[in-house]
Design goal:
Elements (H helix, E strand, L loop, with lengths): L1 E5 L14 H11 L3 E5 L1 H7 L10 H15 L3 E4 L7 H10 L4 E6 L6 H10 L5 E4 L15 E4 L21 E6 L11 H11 L5 E4 L10 H7 L2 E6 L24 H7 L3 E4 L16 E2 L3 H13 L1 H18 L2 H12 L15 E2 L1
Parallel strand pairs: 1-2, 1-3, 3-4, 4-5, 5-6, 7-8, 7-9, 9-10, 10-11
Antiparallel strand pairs: 6-12
Helix pairs in contact: 1-11, 2-3, 3-4
Length: about 350
């Protein structure tokens, strides 16, 4: 079928974000036998005005979107990172193309108010919504005639090509890249954990986007990653200066796409237990966990000493990520739920469909 994928292609970054979630979704749908047109509303909005303003160009972008619906005649419109397209335009797309399925994808945490606001608005026009957080917290985002479900972060074999578990001569013990220069709050693990590793005397870390280090993008992102044996897999758990972590219900199984990048590239992922990822990856068999800075440091030291164990666990995590959490399976699941079809695979993640 024809699928219109609406998201951010980052044309202005000249390939720096070639591995973003939208690009992987496109690859997955294509490998499943569909033709995909990638519509990037932010890029189109910017290109329509001499000021390169996506806000000023939003009207043009919405008109172009509707022209695309008329010309391409999609059976399904999948939208992610697409706030430049209005809800009114999505409703008009349904009028232009009766029977088209509107599918919303959210890869952002539920404890951030701006993400909740988008989900609240768009549940009214979506046929299905998929969120990278699991559990009962999804239920409020089901619409009158739509369902909402969890999806895991997806690995793309065309992008996550590394096999760090096959090597032992990497330059670094640990890799971490983020956009957490000083952390969002006191004790933010995305800042405190990697800085502690950097300041240790017996561990080396390739650190980016933290404590004044520049961020890392493009092909260099994966080149640097696979030049390390292990990686920190860390997430924030609150909004801004809020003192307490968000309730578990709002972060259950949530993870940034870092987990797919790290495990899909064959590194040993070291995570906290905060989001219950041990329900998806067996502790000490496919991923390892540590919740305090001292525990994290000792865990990293243990697997630096025991390289055979590091390689064995990393390979098991890599294999599970590529076989059970691949973008090919995730996009198949999206299609089957959106068109109310029987599952063709025993999906290894929570598949509860929440309704209003």
């Amino acid at each position: 079928m024809r699928i219109l994928l609406v998201g951010n292609a980052h044309h202005d970054l000249n390939g720096a974000r070639y591995y973003n979630p939208e690009a992987k979704l496109k690859n997955g749908f294509i490998r499943n036998g569909h033709v995909v047109h990638f519509f990037s509303p932010k890029d189109i909005a910017r290109s329509s005005t001499i000021f390169r303003s996506s806000r000023i160009g939003q009207k043009h972008s919405n008109a172009a979107f509707l022209d695309c619906v008329r010309i391409f005649k999609p059976s399904m419109i999948v939208f992610i990172h697409s706030v430049h397209i209005t809800e009114e335009s999505f409703v008009e797309a349904k009028r232009i193309r009766p029977g088209v399925r509107l599918v919303q994808i959210c890869v952002d945490p539920l404890f951030r108010p701006k993400n909740i606001a988008v989900l609240e608005r768009r549940k009214l026009i979506s046929d299905a919504t998929f969120i990278t957080t699991a559990g009962e917290a999804l239920k409020p985002y089901a619409g009158k005639d739509s369902v909402v479900s969890f999806i895991p972060n997806w690995v793309d074999p065309a992008i996550e090509t590394g096999r760090a578990f096959t090597e032992s001569d990497q330059r670094y013990d640990v890799f971490f890249a983020a956009r957490a220069h000083v952390g969002e709050y006191e004790g933010d693990p995305r800042f405190t954990f990697p800085v502690a590793v950097r300041d240790s005397s017996d561990l080396t870390i390739d650190l980016h986007g933290v404590d004044g280090q520049p961020a890392l993008h493009g092909a260099a992102f994966y080149e640097h990653m696979t030049d390390a044996r292990m990686a920190l897999n860390l997430n924030g758990d609150r909004q801004g200066d809020v003192k307490e972590p968000a309730p578990l219900a709002l972060r259950y199984l949530y993870n940034s796409d870092r987990v797919a990048q790290v495990m899909g590239s064959g590194l040993l992922a070291v995570s906290t237990r905060a989001n219950h990822l041990f329900e998806m990856f067996a502790d000490g068999e496919e991923m390892v966990f540590a919740d305090k800075v001292d525990d994290m440091l000792e865990t990293l030291r243990r697997y630096k000493r025991d390289d055979a164990a590091r390689r064995r666990i990393a390979e098991a995590g890599w294999r599970k990520s590529h076989t059970e959490y691949s973008v090919d399976l995730v996009t198949r699941y999206i299609e089957e739920v959106s068109f109310e079809r029987a599952f063709s695979h025993h999906y290894q993640w929570p598949t509860t469909l929440y309704t209003a």
